[in-house]
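Exercise 3.2. Students should predict the tertiary structure of the chain below and write it as structure tokens, then compare their answer with the key that follows.

Predict this chain's 3D structure.
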Amino acid sequence: MHGRRVTQEAGRAAEFEAFVAGAAGRLLHAATLLTAEAPDANPRARRLLTLALGHTYARWHRLRDGDPYDCARRYLAVRFAHSLRHRLPGRARPGPCGPLAGLGAQERLILVLRLYEGIAEEQTAALLGLTVEHVHTVCEGAASLVLHPVGAAGAGRPG
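Answer key:
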């Protein structure tokens, strides 16, 4: 009995390792876009990724018929959204950089889910607890700011 359990755990670990090998890069890129950190200096994005992968591993045995990538991506987005609501005042963060640096955190979150991850407006709204109209409006405005930055420096927004 004990031998079978050890074998099952080893198989579970091997399956999860294969999942991480295939999905971690894309999830880290999504997390880096969300946090607007530099790709080579992204401690918040790496923490988000670690938490999302830990959450997914904890549910691995229940994901047999589900999509582990979806589970990890959902956790990543929800955890990032939660951090926006519970950000401590006075906590210094380095200035954002990267292609989405001119956007606010919620704009980045919606844009990454909708355009980078390809999640439908309805699913994005349900995941974030927003209306579909709000998601549509924010996505449209954020995409416009990224595609047509305001100002000579291309900072995204005036002032």
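Discussion points: Helices lie at 2-35, 43-58, 68-85, 105-116, 121-128, 132-147. The two ends are 67 Å apart (CA to CA).
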